[in-house]
């Protein structure tokens, strides 16, 4: 039982770093295989339209955005700034620090969180076997590009691990009217 629980927790952690997209194993640019996602990754059910899991209540993107923004503004006051792929909120720099993704996980316990600047994952909550954050080697979800372009939050069913279903929320992080980054949160239902 203890080994099963550890395996489930490890699987949940891996999901956050992977981006949990409906185009698993594909790069957004070419649609070709990149890297297989590990076992236990929640994937979209082929019979589902990807927008709302059957029998589940859809996460309210506006509510999530308000809750996340309130928590982040309190801990990291200031505006969002991007230079190349370096993301700052006020005087705080996220790259290599992980405070923003960890604060979102504190706000939504059990969630898996990634942060993208353009197509690059610059931060995430998943750690590899070596204890380091897993940021590379997996495809960027197509919805990251859609959120960057539209500037609007998006909610997608991310499938399930065991009996736990997930919904993935893509939140645009903005400087004025311009989306500078995308925060993804896989929230357990």
Radius of gyration: 16 Å
Sequence stretches where pLDDT stays below 50 over 5 or more residues: 1-55
Which architecture does the CATH hierarchy give at level 2?
Answer: 2-Layer Sandwich
Query: What do the pLDDT scores average to?
Result: 76
Overall body shape: globular
Number of distinct helices: 4
What topology, given as strand order, has the largest sheet?
A: 5-4-8-7-6
User: Helix fraction?
Assistant: 25-40%
Task: Give a written overview of the molecule.
The protein is an alpha+beta fold and 189 residues long. It has one domain (2-20, 42-188): Beta-Lactamase. Helix content is 26%, strand content 28%. The chain contains 4 helices and 8 strands. Strand 7 and strand 8 (178-188) form a beta hairpin. The longest helix has 17 residues, at 2-18. The radius of gyration is 16 Å and the shape is globular. The two termini are 23 Å apart.
Q: What's the SSE blueprint?
A:
Layout: H1 2-18, H2 61-75, E1 80-83, E2 86-89, E3 92-93, H3 99-107, E4 112-117, E5 120-124, H4 142-150, E6 154-161, E7 164-175, E8 178-188
Antiparallel strand pairs: 1-2, 2-3, 4-5, 4-8, 6-7, 7-8
Helix pairs in contact: 2-3
């Amino acid at each position: 039982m203890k080994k099963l629980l550890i395996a489930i927790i490890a699987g949940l952690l891996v999901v956050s770093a992977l981006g949990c997209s409906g185009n698993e194993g594909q790069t957004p640019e070419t649609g070709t295989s990149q890297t297989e996602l590990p076992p236990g990754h929640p994937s979209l059910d082929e019979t589902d339209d990807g927008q709302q899991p059957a029998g589940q209540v859809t996460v309210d993107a506006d509510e999530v955005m308000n809750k996340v923004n309130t928590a982040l503004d309190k801990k990291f006051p200031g505006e969002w700034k991007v230079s190349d792929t370096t993301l700052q909120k006020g005087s705080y720099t996220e790259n290599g620090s992980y405070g923003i993704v960890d604060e979102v996980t504190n706000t939504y316990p059990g969630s898996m969180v990634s942060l993208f600047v353009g197509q690059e994952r610059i931060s995430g909550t998943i750690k590899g076997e070596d204890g380091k954050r897993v940021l590379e080697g997996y495809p960027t979800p197509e919805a990251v590009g859609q959120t960057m372009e539209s500037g609007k939050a998006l909610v997608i069913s991310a499938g399930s691990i065991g009996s736990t279903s997930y919904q993935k929320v893509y939140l645009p992080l903005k400087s004025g009217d311009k989306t500078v980054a995308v925060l993804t949160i896989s929230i357990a239902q």
